[in-house]
Amino acid sequence: MEQYEFIYWSAYSLSPAAVMAIFRYRNADTDFHPFIYLLWMGFINEALSTMLIKTGHSNAINNNIYVLLEAGLLLWQFYKWGVLKRYGWMYVIAGVLVGLGWGLENVWLGEIRSFDNLFRMYTAVLVISLALIKLTQRAAEIRERRYTKTCFLICAGLLLYFCVNLYLEILLHFFHTATWTGALFWWSGWVNIVANILFFIAVLWIPGKAFYTED
Question: Global pTM?
Answer without folding.
Answer: 0.89
